[in-house]
Amino acid sequence: EIIGAMTDGVYEFHDYLESYFPNEVIFVNIKMTVKGDELEIDYEGSDPQLPLAMNLVAGDAKAHPFLCHPLVNYIITAADDIPRTGAMLRSVTIKAPKGTLCNAEFPAAGGNRMVSVSRFYDVLLGCMNQAVPGGLVSAGYGIAGIIVASSLDPKTGKRHVSTVEPFMGGGGGRCNGDGMDAVDVPRGALRSAPIETVEIEQPFVIRRFGVENDTQGAGKYRGGGAAVLTIENRGPSTMVTVRGLDRFEFQPWGFGGGKCGQSGSVILNPKTAAEKDI
């Protein structure tokens, strides 16, 4: 019934991921066809699988949930009593060509595939906005950044690794209200770690963790504010990595005349003579 209420037609959308190689981008393409109460999603035209850890292996599944996540969210929102089983996708067919970043073949690295899954979410959402009268929501921050630190244990002299925080941006402006500050639906299950725990586990002082002012995308319903996290690292041997970052060049898009959200940034040694945008 929910699919049948969409407007019949063929809808197309595309977006980009940012490569780790200079002057390269990664293209994600999608076509969604609604016909009666059946829906087809086709990722033909997306880039080949990558020599990076950003590949998804969808296999031969008729409808892999990572390739139709916004549709699942829409169904369980429109019918909140529906059982959350694979039967929800019985009327959905997904075409994910093998050898592409959305259905890679061996050998392919996929440890950072969630950054690609975030963009698969955005492109399907771009089609759904066209098929659902009035649209649904603009693109959110579109990343799943996970901060990880490795430091020396002063008692044992050995290294230990901690997941410090999942890093959030703002949600896109919705059809019926502003976006959410510092969180978006695809990654809404991620929770922040208590600051006290982070400072016990690692030689960090968290100087600020909050919502950055004036980062909301403008519109009738504006986007949510971005998160800002300022970490002081007091461990000379401590290494910090963040996987899953994106949207430094390609801003989250607006819908229905709404403006784009802001790009992300990572600043080393902020407000010092050694300040550097990395």
Summarize this structure briefly.
With about 280 residues, the chain is α+β, with helices and mostly antiparallel strands.
Output the keywords.
278 residues, alpha+beta
Structure description:
The protein is of the alpha+beta class and 278 residues long. Helices cover 13% and strands 26% of the residues. The protein is built from three helices and eleven strands. The strands form four sheets. Strands 1-2-3-4 form a four-stranded mixed β-sheet, with helices on one face. The protein is globular and about 65 Å long.
Molecular shape: globular
How would you classify the helix and strand content by structural class?
alpha+beta
Q: Roughly how much helix do the residues carry, as a percent range?
A: 10-25%
Low-confidence stretches: none
Helix-strand sequence? EEEHEHEEHEEEEE
Q: Characterize the biggest β-sheet.
A: 4 strands, mixed
N-to-C terminal Cα separation, in Å?
48 Å
